Amino acid sequence: MEPFKPDQTDIGILRLLQEDGKMPYKELAEKLGKSINPINERIKRLKAEGYISATVALLDLQKLGGTFIAFPHINLTNHLESTMSLFMAKMVEYPEVMECYHLTGHYDFMLKVVMPSMAHYNTFLKEKITILPYVGNVQSFLALSEVKRKMTYPYL
């Protein structure tokens, strides 16, 4: 059996759903010139195959009381696979870590963390990051303002 590969209709579904994840199947079907049942089946398949991993609401963080966004860049004490795995597992555990990237270049990892304040960020660094024995150093880059936040993949 060949692995699943999305066709143009599937790509159309993905393109529309990434703009509006709650778009009714009827509207999807109309926009794609298909009937509702095949659209429903295709979405089930796209979810089962992992092309759609979640449907979420994007929140306006400023309306929730303001936010403090930081991008700590982290170097580990060594580059052993076991050390990297331990660090990555910890980052997955921490709800404050919105994104975590393994990098090339001067730093090993970059995080995106969202906090209510600088004080919360300071506590997070002291109690969850720099306490880890395999963290060598941390340099923080702080967001002054958000210029763009888009979650859609432009190459569909």
Automatic annotation (TrEMBL):
One of its GO terms (biological process) is regulation of DNA-templated transcription. GO terms for cellular component: cytosol. SMART domains: HTH_ASNC. It comes from Pedobacter ginsengisoli. The keyword Transport does not apply. This is AsnC family transcriptional regulator. Residues 6-67 form the HTH asnC-type domain. One of its GO terms (molecular function) is sequence-specific DNA binding. PANTHER family: LEUCINE-RESPONSIVE REGULATORY PROTEIN, TRANSCRIPTIONAL REGULATOR AZLB. PROSITE patterns: HTH_ASNC_2. InterPro entries: ArsR-like_HTH, AsnC-type_HTH_dom, Dimeric_a/b-barrel, Tscrpt_reg_AsnC-like, Tscrpt_reg_AsnC/Lrp_C, WH-like_DNA-bd_sf, WH_DNA-bd_sf. It comes from the Bacteria. The keyword Transcription applies. Gene3D superfamilies: 3.30.70.920, Winged helix-like DNA-binding domain superfamily/Winged helix DNA-binding domain. Keywords: DNA-binding, Transcription, Transcription regulation.
